[in-house]
Amino acid sequence: MPHDIIKISNLRRDFNVGAETVHALRNVSFGVKENEFLTIMGTSGSGKSTLLNILGALDKPTEGDYYLDGINVSNLSKDELAVIRNRKIGFVFQSFNLLPRTSALENVELPLMYNSGISSRRRREQAIEALRIVGLADRMKHAPNQLSGGQQQRVAIARALVNDPVMVLADEATGNLDSKTTEDIMSLFRKLNREGKTIVFVTHEHDIAGYSKRTIVLRDGEIIDDYENTGRPAQGS
Questions:
Q1: Which band of pLDDT confidence, cut at 50, 70 and 90, is reported for residue 178?
Q2: Does the chain have fewer CB atoms within 10 Å around its N or its C terminus?
């Protein structure tokens, strides 16, 4: 029986803006099972960016609990949060966030630099394997400016996988890509999910949500819908 990779209970996040209190998230509760592919959707101001920051251990809730792989992230110190981000979460961003003067292989190795328990040889082996998984074994010596947008995003996905995280967290990861490349990247995410990766994908696009198994919809800081995706697109199946 798959266990909960994410368990969120009665999450609230408030921000003080001058004399006003903005309730960015209100009483949010949900779980994500191991090997689930979840999309979080919402328009601007819905609270999805705030939720993304909490899921990524970049922010802490005002109230409520967030468990990641059995650990209550809500109670951790800044240093402990940094360890959780590095060891348990693989991030994929819209803007790729690759180091420009560094090869694809070195970009993928980067998260392992912060793990003193991994030798330089092992670090390289894991990075090579991650690039192989995303189909870029023949591009590992190329710098980002020698790669297409889709290839750069594959490098970013390889970097997210290299630590074997319990969750891959993607933030509008196809926002800078054309429709054909978007289809290729979403098919890759679906393949990774079939191979056992738990994926949480934040987007505002309904077409992207169709690639996942389940969608949560946020509005005004609250979950207004949570449903299984039955009519998933045929592309990349």
A1: very high
A2: N
Q: Kindly state the percentage of the chain with pLDDT values over 70.
A: 97
pLDDT at 236: 39
- For residues 198 and 167, give the distance between their C-alpha atoms in angstroms, rounded to a whole number: 5
State the fold for domain 4-11+33-228.
Rossmann fold (3.40.50)
Task: Pull the structure tokens for residue 29.
Answer: 């509760």
Q: Map out the domains of the chain as residue ranges.
A: 4-11+33-228
Average pLDDT over residues 212-222: 96
CB-based contacts of 123, cutoff 8 Å, min separation 6 = 109, 112, 113
Task: Identify the pLDDT of residue 231.
Answer: 56
CA-based nearest residue to 92, from 17, 177, 7, 14: 177
Q: E strands of 34-166, at which residues?
A: 37-41, 63-68, 71-72, 89-93
For residues 20-35, give the mean pLDDT. 96
